[in-house]
Amino acid sequence: MCKTYCFILTSVILLQGKATGGPVRMGYEYMPEEDAWLRLHIEPAIWPDARLRCHLEGGALASPTTSAMTKALVAMLAANKMTMRHAYIGVHALLSKGEFMSMEGIPMGNLSARWREGEPNNMKNEEDCVVLDGAGEAIDVSCSTPRPYFCRKESTRMIVNKCGTTADGQTLSEAGYEGWRHNEPNNVEKEFCGAIDRDGYLNNCPCDRFALFICEVTPK
Ligand SMILES: [Ca+2]
Ligand SMILES: [Ca+2]
User: Fold this and answer.
1) Which of 62, 114, 132, 194 has the greatest number of CB atoms lying within 10 Å of its CB?
2) Ligand 1 centre distance from Cα of residue 139 (Å)
3) What is the pTM of this model?
4) What are the tens digits of pLDDT across the range 101-115?
5) What domains lie within the chain, and their CATH numbers?
6) Contact at 8 Å (CB) between 143 and 46?
7) CA gap 199, 96 in Å, rounded
């Protein structure tokens, strides 16, 4: 039974549901055809910032890699009444002018989405990023105009926790350390994530607070 807090020691993002479907916080929707999670960020950002934001969420800018992906991205625009608008995808030509590829390095020609008629036209010689429109067509655009954007997270990167456990599912006691700061966990403002203060004491805090973070890698 969860107490008044949920603790995730190594994750700054709290996710709910199972990796195979349930609702996930932060606006991600599960896509069974790809076994991946997608999110349409409505708040506009320039392409580099959109890329960074997806990365900070543990994913990458999404690209229409398959027809199912294209369909899903178009459906997300429609669900947000944005069929007449565009959103950034991961396709760009920032590494080599005119050679558009996805974040995964897949050339545009091997992706599912097709260029809108007349595109890419590289207007003013500054269109190195790509948006998807409500019809599922791609348009090259300037990277420096704020626009909505799509993020994708792989299912295997979703960490599902029980309340009061680390990212590995251990209780703090099992993990070997539960040195809370005096009067913590206090859950003063929906503090569902865990942090460690500079002096080594644990503290619960809101999951949307910007903070340094530590990753743990298991040697292969
Ligand atoms: Ca264009
Ligand atoms: Ca606290």
Assistant:
1) 62
2) 5
3) 0.65
4) 999 999 999 999 999
5) 1-16+160-220 (no CATH), 29-153 (3.10.100.10)
6) yes
7) 47
